[in-house]
Amino acid sequence: MTKNLSNLVLIGMPGSGKSTVGIILAKKTSLAFVDTDVLIQASQQQSLQSIVDTQGYAALRKIEEALLLGLSLQNHVIATGGSAVYSDKAMTHLKSDGRIVFLDADINTLMRRIGDFSARGIAKRPGQSFAELFEERLTLYKRHADITINGAKMTHEAVCDTIINEMDRYLH
Fold first, then answer.
1. What phi and psi values does residue 72 have, to the nearest 5 degrees?
2. What does the domain layout of the chain look like in residue ranges?
3. Is the CATH number of domain 7-171 3.30.70.20?
4. Strand ranges in 4-90 using DSSP code E only, listed in sequence order
5. Which string of DSSP letters, residue by residue, matches 14-29?
6. Which of 82, 99, 90 has the alpha carbon at shortest distance from 136?
7. Cα dihedral value 74, 23, 130, 143, nearest 10
8. pLDDT digits 0-9 by tens, 97-139
């Protein structure tokens, strides 16, 4: 699957499974794995929620964009933060060396998976509900995705197998 492809980039809402699926997918495809939320936290030496609390959601999005634009990776599965899609420049950069996979899930599934999203470090406007954020981002995810996988009713392993099968079709 990976002969003609450098990176697989996972996008989606918090709770869509990007990090968990990314780790499993990396193992199944013999690619390295990177979670950009972890890179942001390490570079800023604070949690995503702390960044939002002290600097605001726009600062987190700006930090994320700069980090994504600075990535130069080959043969990786990249799990992005949920707000990566707000930067057309960052998404174009990621797409230049890989394929974008949107891990789609309905809002009820996402809310069940993440529970209290107020401490999750989500880059959303003050007072913006999770439902409003979901609607706002859905269009962006669909616009940037090469492939969309609805994994709401699938195991993480099944999502990975579906991605691998779709990528095989995409490349041939």
1. -135, 85
2. 7-171
3. no
4. 7-11, 32-35, 76-79
5. TTS-HHHHHHHHHHHH
6. 82
7. 40
8. 899 999 999 999 998 888 776 666 788 888 888 899 999 999 9
